[in-house]
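User: Show me a protein chain along with its predicted structure.
Assistant: Here is one chain, sequence first, then structure tokens.
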Amino acid sequence: MRFKILVAGALTLALAAPAEAQNNTGGSGWDVNIYNTGTGLWSGFLGGVYSPGGQPSVWQPNDAFTQTISAWSNFSGPGGQGDYNYLNDANNRYRYLFRYDFGAALSAGSVRFSTGWDNILKSFQFSNGSPLAPVSSYNLSSTTRSVDNHFGFCRTDDGIWNSGNGVCTADFAVPVTAGATWMQFELWGDGQTDGMWLAWDKTSTTSDIVPEPATMTLLATGLAGMAAARRRRRRA
């Protein structure tokens, strides 16, 4: 009986799926890739996205756990004139892929989060799946305005919420298949205050840490040795 308990304990330690704590924006694990429509070039994924001390007032306030992040040190990129036109994507000068690495493979289910963005949120994508669209189909908030072509904050007419709404973020639930290791948010912007704010519902997903082959070999060797020792004791 003792041997069975030891084996069960070893398997539990090796195969357990502890929940990985997702980092809200402002935490570690975020990267950004920038596409410049003027040059037609991608900058490549960059570590250490910016989280300046101040933030655009259209988002929820920064706190000790969640900060607004951007590809730019002051939320605004170089060059270009004119505000983004949400009706036809005019003045779309930059496209951003904000990627979060969960640090382990997700279990099947869904991820839930609240987020705000500037200018337009175009798609979600996981490491083991194609982009999910339309984005609006995953919106849990009561706004009747399409997420796909309205700004992700409070501004009358072109924002998903009118000015003065009080809550300037939207809630989402996005399905995920088991095995995804990162999630990506595609934003289009005009280089002026481009960025995003996101707070995970950290109870909505669990992360599975899959043992490396070498770890499994060591585990099997150890279990075999335990079994042999048990047989020797019985014969004795």
